[in-house]
């Protein structure tokens, strides 16, 4: 390749990346253009002749920029999305430049080694069993799916059925149980695994699973069963009673999975680890590094205690693939055979932060959530409707119409973006504090913006 083949295009990409990163904290958070407007700016027809790569990058950045939401803004509180740690971004750029298909250790020993270190460090941080299988997947949904597939295979093996060989047709039915507040990604994982939607067994007002309801549901039948628990309810941030629920589930022979898309990181903080007491006794866990750890998209993490169950469910086998050795291959832990080295960004972030830095990151998010809740609760006409135990803050106005108007007003104001939702029978505004940059200053700016928008709403909502 010519020495300068990439020089101009990388310079253009770096320029636009810097422009974006330097503006993301102050620009209006909501996108200013529709998909149709962005497409029109780019031109909808494919030209017969090509264009200079650097010019293409300039064209792309200029056309798409009005259609970008400032999701890395410290005042973006939607969808539980973190910011971008500098080490993670730098590592992610290198991963793209190296272009390693990290499916196997043999052709890609460099990135495989880094991912294996990242996996080992995550297990240590979380306090999970050493030797567990760890897969770096596309996100929280795929992490849940990977774990559910591992669970499905193992519980059916215990019942005398090899689902990897024979499929689901004719297999003993697998019961799939969860609390009433089960997240949609968990339900989707069950659907994709052929289990259908989970049967819900009850929950308290904060979304924590009803352990007595779980015990009663387990007692209604026998045979293969998977129980889904959660670390961090998407509305309240609440954590299930893991010790009690896992004891009940294991007594019935169930596989227990913990959906901890953002909440699993509580285990990395000495001051918050009580929230996950007993969770290490589960059989599998899922999280998403682009949330609390602030790694760029995409980077889910699937963890299975019994690595052999994970490999049986997800592993690939072909004559052209390396002969299985003493150490598992990366493709034994993910649904993908071909993929980028997502775990490298996790390694870089953990290396940059260290154990204490990860704890400080998580503690800082929780402190900001509590400060935000205190400030919003002091505003006339607003009510905090959840018990703020982690990073979620849910707010409601006097009635649903005024709450909906507040959401629209915040989008138009541009300083803050928060998610509208419906919880416990009423409209709410959900603030998910997930960005490492959401400090006391940004919390104060958020409260000021909400107060300003409230003041501009008509008295009837």
UniProtKB/TrEMBL annotation:
Name of this protein: Aspartate aminotransferase family protein
Taxonomic lineage from the root: Bacteria, Bacillati, Actinomycetota, Actinomycetes, Micrococcales
Residue numbers carrying N6-(pyridoxal phosphate)lysine: 291
InterPro entries, per database record: Aromatic_deC, PyrdxlP-dep_de-COase, PyrdxlP-dep_Trfase, PyrdxlP-dep_Trfase_major, PyrdxlP-dep_Trfase_small
BP-aspect Gene Ontology terms: carboxylic acid metabolic process
Cofactor: pyridoxal 5'-phosphate
Signal peptide limits: none
Gene3D superfamilies recorded: Aspartate Aminotransferase, domain 1, dopa decarboxylase, N-terminal domain, Type I PLP-dependent aspartate aminotransferase-like (Major domain)
Annotated source species: Agromyces intestinalis
Family: Belongs to the group II decarboxylase family.
Taxonomic superkingdom: Bacteria
One GO MF term attached to the UniProt entry: aromatic-L-amino-acid decarboxylase activity
Keywords recorded for this protein, A-Z: Aminotransferase, Decarboxylase, Lyase, Pyridoxal phosphate, Transferase
